[in-house]
Amino acid sequence: MKTQEITRLLKRLIQICDHGELGFYYSAQHVKSKELSLILVSLADNCRQCRCALQKLLGGAVSPRSRASSALHRAKLTLRIIFTENVDRAILRECARMEEKIVSEYRAAMQKLLPIPVRELLERQYRGAKCNASRIHDLLVLQQVIGPILSRPKPYDTKTVDRQQPFDHAEQRAEV
After folding, report:
1. How far apart, in Å, are the Cα atoms of 6 and each of 59, 65, 69, 107, 109?
2. What is the pLDDT of residue 108?
3. Of 18, 23, 70, 110, which is most buried, counting CB atoms within 10 Å of its CB?
4. Under 8 Å CB-to-CB from 126, ≥6 apart: which residues?
């Protein structure tokens, strides 16, 4: 593979990692669950580390070409947040789509004939992306199972009932 093609491939992966980083940070800010927010921040940090490693491989800071697609994706996510009842689930679904896109980009990159240092780095990042995709899928399944349980109304609790005296109509008429 030619040096220009490798550079173009790495820049594309940098852009994908940047898109993932921004998407996960944005998602972390909008989920209701603090635990889920922490997980999404860690996924964003993983994307940032991958982006930095790819930039280092190219010899320094390479800025992503376009953030327009990232902005469009965040706008789409905002609409889902506004018009959905289960915000965390909608965000997790969007994160799953985003991570699958990252995995498919790495899978396509792995099909190419690459120098050994580049291949080793991409293999490590590809395994990490697959692990992240699996983690998000597990969170979706867990949220589907536990979410409805957590959102059910609490059963009637006799300890929290206000024990007022029965209403006395004679008392009310005397006040008037």
Report:
1. 13, 16, 23, 15, 9
2. 94
3. 23
4. 103, 106, 107, 109, 110
Residue 3: what pLDDT?
87
- Residue 167, pLDDT score: 47
91 phi/psi in degrees, rounded to 5: -65, -40
Task: Report CA 35 to chain centroid distance, whole Å.
Answer: 12
- Low pLDDT (below 70) residues in the chain: 61-85, 147-176
Q: Report yes or no: 14 and 55 within 8 Å, Cβ to Cβ.
A: yes
Distance CA 38, CA 29 (A): 10
pTM: 0.73
Instruction: Please give the C-alpha separations between residue 172 and each of 97, 124, 164, 167, 169, in angstroms, as whole numbers.
Output: 63, 77, 15, 9, 5
Residue type, 62: V
Token pair of 31, please?
A: 């989920």
Q: At what angle do helices 3-30 and 68-82 cross, to 10 degrees?
A: 30
Q: Which two tokens stand for residue 145?
A: 């199972």
For residue 95, the one-letter residue type is C
- Supply the angle between the helices 34-57 and 116-151 in degrees, to the nearest 10: 170
Rg (CA), the chain: 25
